[in-house]
UniProtKB/TrEMBL annotation:
PROSITE patterns: RECOMBINASES_1, RECOMBINASES_3. The active site is at 10 (o-(5'-phospho-dna)-serine intermediate). This is Recombinase family protein. Residues 64-121 form a coiled coil. The keyword Transmembrane does not apply. One of its GO terms (molecular function) is DNA binding. GO terms for biological process: DNA integration. InterPro entries: Homeodomain-like_sf, Recombinase_CS, Resolv_N, Resolvase-like_N_sf, Resolvase_HTH_dom, SSR_resolvase. Gene3D superfamilies: Homeodomain-like, Resolvase, N-terminal catalytic domain. It comes from Vagococcus intermedius. SUPFAM superfamilies: Homeodomain-like, Resolvase-like. Belongs to the site-specific recombinase resolvase family. Residues 2-142 form the Resolvase/invertase-type recombinase catalytic domain.
Length: 198
């Protein structure tokens, strides 16, 4: 049985030292670290760790969100860890290290993580619902403008404004939408929207 740590930071985060300190306190023998920038989804160290782990290993992370950026990614990583017969220990969740029976500890650990994921997903749904309600209320008061259109006559991007004018010109000449889409490299749905506005 080996205790293996996993840490992930983006270029914007400054908590690498904190994660390392927490993992060292948890007495991990090896740490895999991914440094990501922006929306980079490539996590080579996570992949290497998933290949490295063996049955009865314990994977330790400071927080559940270190394993992925969303519920789907986290669930996928958790499933891969379980498939290898390893367990997952998340340091900001209740510890089950005092339970001697491996099967019981694994079962309770998985239950806690599933509850945590369920709670996080519910929070996201509630945020989306409140946002939807806020938009509806703003629409009722005629204050909601929506996201500005990328291709329009009043677009802030000069190139997109010129492209919009070119689309309108081509539509007036009855140029097929598929041809306009290919020539200007604009999605057909965008061209349909512009056509329907006229």
């Amino acid at each position: 049985m080996t205790k293996i740590g996993y840490a992930r930071v983006s270029s914007k985060e400054q908590n690498l030292e904190r994660q390392f300190e927490l993992l060292e306190r948890a007495q991990v023998t090896k740490i895999f670290l991914d440094k990501l920038s922006g929306k980079d989804n490539n996590r080579p160290q996570l992949k290497e760790m998933l290949n490295y782990i063996r049955e009865d290993d314990i994977i330790v992370a400071a927080e559940l969100d270190r394993l992925g950026r969303n519920n789907k990614e986290v669930t996928s990583v958790m499933n891969q860890i379980q498939d290898k017969g390893a367990t997952l220990e998340i340091l900001n969740l209740p510890s089950l290290s005092g339970i001697q029976n491996d099967n019981l500890r694994r079962l309770l650990n998985n239950l806690i993580i599933e509850l945590f994921k369920y709670t996080a997903e519910n929070e996201r749904k509630q945020i989306r619902e409140r946002q939807r309600q806020g938009i509806e209320l703003a629409k009722e008061k005629d204050k909601y403008k929506g996201r500005p259109l990328a291709y329009s006559s009043d677009s802030t991007d000069k190139q997109k404004r010129l492209t919009y004018e070119k689309i309108v010109e081509m539509l007036e000449k009855d140029v097929p939408i598929t041809h306009i889409s290919k020539e200007l490299d604009v999605a057909r749905n965008t061209i349909y929207r512009i056509r329907d506005e006229k």
